[in-house]
Design brief:
Length: 106
């Protein structure tokens, strides 16, 4: 069963814990079953690849690793501040996400 998440593909996020703490990046992929996300340029792992026809040299490739969703916080596109995610109805009556920061009490 897939769970609701506060992070979606394409969001700008800030890492709260781990080696890449306080760094920011764009979400490339979200796995809602495992509750993880792949963030561009963060949690870099070395992957050893065998020579193939596409890559005859082989070698060591840097690849982004997964980060648990609980360690990510959404960044507001307008202010650039990180905060919790809330949901509210907009003027058209559709549910929209917004970032709850210390300044924006909604």
């Amino acid at each position: 069963m897939q769970k609701k998440t506060h992070i979606k593909k394409g969001d700008m996020v800030k890492v709260l814990a781990g080696e890449d703490r306080t760094k920011q990046g764009r979400v490339l992929e979200v796995d809602r079953d495992r509750m993880i996300a792949i963030v561009e340029g963060l949690n870099i792992n070395k992957k050893h690849s065998k020579p193939t026809t596409a890559n005859p040299q082989g070698g060591i490739v840097d690849k982004e690793g997964p980060i648990h969703l609980s360690n990510l916080m959404l960044i507001d596109a307008k202010t650039g501040e990180a905060g919790r995610v809330g949901r509210r109805l907009n003027k058209e009556g559709k549910l929209e996400r917004y970032v709850k920061t210390k300044k924006s009490k909604a």
